[in-house]
Specification:
With 384 residues, the protein is of the alpha+beta class. The chain has a domain of 196 residues: Cyclic Phosphodiesterase, Chain: A (Alpha-Beta Complex), CATH 3.90.1140. Helix content is 51%, strand content 15%. The chain has 13 helices and nine strands. The protein has a five-stranded antiparallel sheet with strand order 5-2-1-8-9. The protein has a four-stranded antiparallel sheet with strand order 6-4-3-7, covered by helices on one side.
Length: 384
């Protein structure tokens, strides 16, 4: 049988040699290679070699046929991408801890978001405008606008309130106001370091609006804007480091507001929805004057304004030399004014209560009371 198979194989090889060349299957190539490696006796094929070749062909075919299927059975076929990055599953205990930490972190984020959501500024740092040339020029501007539209009268800012806002903040109680006062005091040396002994002059020229809702006098271009911006950023950082919610998302743009429609909500019902450019076109490049940065106030947006129209001031700092005729201790007097007034009022109330308690009906007592009153009047006259 083997000899007959060998003859048939030889015949097949001969016919393949005479036929046109054609691609040979992998099994045939292996068979031919094995057949030509060693030749047994004439007309015979070694049976062991034949079985080995057939076995090799079978194994090779099986491997090629099942290559894709075998990959799915390998251990790395189901490896998660986290393992490639070195991220492994945490044991159950650690997972619980991580969930607790994540929950605490989420609570902090929620509280912070809630605080930001509830953030309603009610205090601000103000640079008061005291140059009479500037305030007089703004009054002329306001009157020119009112001549064109008298309905805008309630939208005008009073001349005592003219200022530049450096920073807005939220102070919810007296303790936070005191913290804000401390922050303002700490801010002074930083500002003086920025100015390096020089005056900061702020020139005002031209008119612009915020979305046609707020009209303001512009600060002329120049290096002074960069300096004022640096002061504003330093103030923001100083107050925030004290734990005070301060600042805005928008960029700092110094301006001097002279009117805003939000002051008169009824204007919208009357058809006034924006500040028309033609109302202020003749002042579009007008030079209003210069203000020297001399004082910064911590002011309340909500408390009753002072008699001169300026905002309620909690504290102030004076920047630079005192060249406006104020006494040397003016800054200390201004900062402690509220405390002194409260102390005086308490002392007077206590004196009156003690006087009423000691006062007895009778001539002698009345005489002593009169003498005390006379002494009091005498001391008062000496103070004046």
């Amino acid at each position: 049988m083997l000899r007959f198979a060998g003859l048939r194989a030889s015949a097949g090889l001969a016919s393949a040699a005479s036929a046109p060349a054609a691609p040979r299957p992998p099994g045939l190539r292996l068979f031919l290679r094995a057949a030509t490696m060693e030749r047994p006796a004439a007309g015979e094929i070694n049976s062991n070699q034949c079985e080995s070749v057939l076995r090799e062909e079978k194994v090779s075919g099986e491997l090629k046929a099942s290559t894709v299927d075998s990959l799915t059975d390998m251990p790395f076929a189901t490896v998660d991408i986290r393992d490639d990055c070195g991220i492994t599953d945490v044991p159950q205990m650690n997972s619980k801890r991580s969930k607790e930490k994540e929950g605490i972190k989420n609570d902090h984020i929620k509280k912070r978001k809630k605080a930001l959501k509830d953030y309603q500024p009610n205090y601000f740092l103000s640079v008061p405008i005291t140059n009479k040339k500037i305030t007089a020029g703004i009054k002329v501007l306001q009157n020119a606008i009112l001549q064109q539209d008298k309905r805008l009268a309630k939208a005008m800012v009073g001349d005592g309130s003219f200022h530049i806002t450096l920073l807005v903040m939220q102070l919810l109680n007296e303790d936070e106001v005191n913290i804000g006062t401390d922050a303002l005091l700490e801010l002074k040396p930083f500002i003086e370091e920025i100015l390096q002994g020089k005056h900061l002059t702020l020139p005002f020229q031209g008119i612009d609006t915020f979305q046609s809702q707020v009209g303001f006098v512009k600060l002329a271009d120049g290096d002074h804007i960069n300096t004022l911006t640096e002061i504003a950023e330093t103030a923001k950082r100083t107050f925030q480091e004290k734990g005070i919610l301060a600042g805005e998302n928008r960029l700092f743009k110094p301006h001097l507001t002279f009117m805003k429609l939000s002051k008169a909500p009824m204007l919208r019902k009357k058809g006034v929805k924006k500040i028309a450019p033609e109302l202020y076109e003749q002042f579009i490049n007008h030079r209003f004057g210069e203000e020297i940065l001399y004082q910064i106030d911590l002011c309340s947006m909500l408390k009753k304004k002072q008699s001169n129209g300026y905002y309620h001031c909690e504290a102030s700092i004076v920047i630079g030399e005192k060249d406006r005729g104020e006494p040397e201790d003016a800054e200390l007097v201004r900062l402690s004014k509220r405390l002194v007034e409260n102390a005086v009022l308490k002392a007077v109330q206590q004196y009156l209560e003690e006087t009423q308690n000691k006062k007895q009906p009778g001539e002698g007592n009345s005489t002593k009371a009169e003498e005390a009153n006379q002494n009091g009047k005498g001391s008062d006259s000496n103070r004046k």
